[in-house]
Amino acid sequence: MTSKVRLGIIGLGAQGSMYAKFITDGLVPNMEIGAIADRDPAKAAVAEAEYGLPFFENYLDLLDSGTVDAVVTCVPHYLHPEIGINALARDVHALVEKPAGVYTKQVAELNAFAATKPELTFGIMFNQRNNPLYIRIKEIVDSGEIGKIRRTNWIITTWWRPQGYYDQSEWRATWGGEGGGVLVNQAPHQLDLLQWICGVPKSVYAKVAYGFRRNIAVEDEVTAVVDYGDGATGVFVTATHDLVGTDRFEILGDQGKIVVEGSKTATVTRLVKPERELSDGMGIDEVRQLFTGRLNIAELYTQEIIEFDSAWGAQHSGVLQNFAANILDGTPLLAPGSDGINGVRLANAIHLSSWKGQEVPLDFDEDEFLAELNKRIREEGTFGERG
Amino acid sequence: MTSKVRLGIIGLGAQGSMYAKFITDGLVPNMEIGAIADRDPAKAAVAEAEYGLPFFENYLDLLDSGTVDAVVTCVPHYLHPEIGINALARDVHALVEKPAGVYTKQVAELNAFAATKPELTFGIMFNQRNNPLYIRIKEIVDSGEIGKIRRTNWIITTWWRPQGYYDQSEWRATWGGEGGGVLVNQAPHQLDLLQWICGVPKSVYAKVAYGFRRNIAVEDEVTAVVDYGDGATGVFVTATHDLVGTDRFEILGDQGKIVVEGSKTATVTRLVKPERELSDGMGIDEVRQLFTGRLNIAELYTQEIIEFDSAWGAQHSGVLQNFAANILDGTPLLAPGSDGINGVRLANAIHLSSWKGQEVPLDFDEDEFLAELNKRIREEGTFGERG
Fold it and tell me: Residues 208-267, chain B: which have Cβ within 8 Å of A?
């Protein structure tokens, strides 16, 4: 292998074109584009004229061409697992776009196959894991600085999408073509970060609004209550109809609290002792002082504000670079591909809970989910069933 | 009647003493203290020495004494309806403390009795309704400025209470003595404001943590998802174990949004048109501009920051003054007593949902709730059953 990884871009839509630009602009020094594949033959001219690169209508031909060491899957979500498996089967490293797939059953197949190819690099484009703010927050939580997690609360409604966005193409915001709405398209980043930082819940209860404020079949608003199984719970809210959206993530631990605003600024509170010790150590006199405003509880904690500048594109190009570095020299992956299943599982559980009107475990029956999804695909009548 | 209402304070604990001080300090110009009642005979000396006032161990004697025109009920929550009814039955105006009671059945009895005495003033101490910020927010919502409400989200965890607070007296934080935890003691203000401003939900699903971070039988943490029945939903989170608590209330409407921080500052966003019109009116070119950062959505709304200074005690003394004014000249009540049932009903529904592990309607079976409550009182074994 040369010192640069030759990437095949499968799907030259908005996302694929963006990655191509990052690479040709030199933002990913250890990567070059090897070839491009797209089902639309009209993209051949673009590949030729803009990049002077080999072009394939069928991505399998790209995989067999010998022009690439790795691929990235910039195609509708349902196809990510299939393309990932076909790439790895041909000893081509695979970077799948988020979400890893639409239903866990297909993602589990991808993960199982990838496990048989440990010598290959299998990553997922969770670019938010490359946000230095979230990296720092994960460090703080993992180090135990704020203690055991007791509550999480994320409102992420900065995903405003007008109707015209949904009307761009036939597959978008359909059950058969896209497999869901905000949960599978916009919020996978937060569904991943939440679990990456705070752990995987045991169960979820959700209210999901389908075609609530948009003329679509799938969900444009979600309210989910997660249960981590150890007393800790959390709330996750997302929507695509809030023009001036909120992005506020709160993590309460036994010994501190983190409040992230706009994925840009975090206020980290560290208690001088575990909260329960502070509570138990307070005598009746101090309780009286507390209620008469004579106890200064600000002495019981310190606060730090963390803020990072972030350049547009740095997150995505950083994931590309990290993926290439893992191929070239074994640099640990920021986002191993096998982690992709967590976000898909939580999204599936949220859908399933809303369909059943009850709390569901995260190890729900995958066949039941797929049957419910296929019921909606059948009723829609535009695309074939899955699975 | 004189130009001042003579108030009987029933219960000279922390709250009753505070009201006495407000009145003797002249913060309530249209009110004076007529008499004091407390089950603790030791309080007689306090009443005599500090206030030079008639004292009664039995509140019924106070009601019959002719020394008061009105009473306020500063006693454990279970007693509010009974005292309210006994006062009104003797043609004494009644201001009940929040919550109006512990279970809706007893509050409904109070409301039904009060309805037979329309000539008397029946109020409830919802002092937060006298917060100028919430008054202004209610005006904005009622006037339709932000359109129909689509989402609400209140995290109110500024109710930090150390263990010593719960250990102060035998009845506190018990099923039989207090009837609940944060829902019946601390959060009734927000349970009221939420419904006063945003309307009464149709159903609720809740996760409630009992004795989670405190050594108590009742709840110290609540996560509730409310459903307004018209597509709108909301989240309500409260807890007593967050030392550096959050108070953040978000209301999303069709044509705007209000975010209240710390019950002190509100950011009011007003869209230039209803959100759905803005969404539908955006052509494919504008959608492309949006995704390439060339569309300035800030032109689609205006923002206003609202902030009020609030003096300590002004809220409570204002409610006392308004209650007296209603008696004296018919000034409309800020908080009619009959409104108290809404907060109790929502608290009961939250408890019931957590006990049943499922969503419950707000018009739940009141007998079922009372049976569940009595089951917990029996198991506790300290106090008698209710109802």
Answer: 209, 212-214, 221, 223, 225, 227, 231, 233, 235, 237, 239, 241-244, 246, 248, 250, 252, 257, 259
